[in-house]
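Handout, section B. The chain below has 330 residues.
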Amino acid sequence: MRDTRESRLLLVLLIAIAFALITVDIRGGEESPVDGARQAAATVFGPVENGVATAVDPIGNAIGAVRDSGRRHDRIGELERENATLKAKLGSDDRNRNRVRELDNMLKKAGAGQYGIKGAEVIAIGAAQGFSWTVTIDVGSNDGIARDMTVLNGDGLVGRVTTVGPNTATVLLASDPDFTVGTRMEKTDELGFATGQGDRPLSVQLLNGKAKVKKGDRLVTFGSQADKPFVPGVPVGEVIRVDPSGGDLTRTIYVRPYAGFTKLDIVGVVVMAPRSDPRDTVLPPKPAAPKPTPTVTVTVTPSADGEGSEQIQGERQDPADANANGQNDE
């Protein structure tokens, strides 16, 4: 459309009409004469507005997400760092499960023997130049620990306390060559003395050179006077080899200790001895002997006519059972 005088007059007229309608609407309030027209327009154009808003909203949300992504990324990074720190403090799940199992086994041992124990953690091993098998634990005199106390774990005898500081203590392991403990054989009550041999089995000398000992027999601590340095009934180990006595007054046997001295973690110091000797009650139950499996042997015996006959050897069936089976078949 060309810019003519008539078009300018039409534009001025439309503007004047628009101002007049606005004035009438404002003065009319809720009873405005144009309210009906407004409602009709809302009815017609409302769905269109909703459709446009629906189409535009995802775009707006995406813009907002992009705008907030920086802050979210920083928060995620912060949470990941906190999670890594927490995992480092707690350790791996496998380690936690192992430590819980060790603690549970140790508490069961202490409960079976009625030992009052103070739990501790191995925090260091002895210096290599000392040529001794020792470990350092994280409890000391401030925790009621004293020299010559028995140390055990969930498997059995670990050693005895030799040096005590305010917050730590040194434990001489049963594998040390300077370590000796009185032992008693399970059931037979044969007495002896076990001595450490480093990474080799314990050497046990029985007082009775003619005592009957076999592989698999088990030993516990005999105990000491006033229960120091050893309380009675703590599992020591299992016989793996027996040397012939050779007419000697004593007899030497070799025992695999229950405790693994190269992988100690959670231990317990016996701060209160049992009122009575627990004897063999702290030993783990022996596994049940396997039941023999019946076997059936088939042999073929040649007959005079050249044909062989089979003979079956094995469990015999009761005749009454056979008759009953025949009746059932009929």
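Note. Residues 96 and 108 are 18 Å apart (CA to CA). Compare this with the example in section A.
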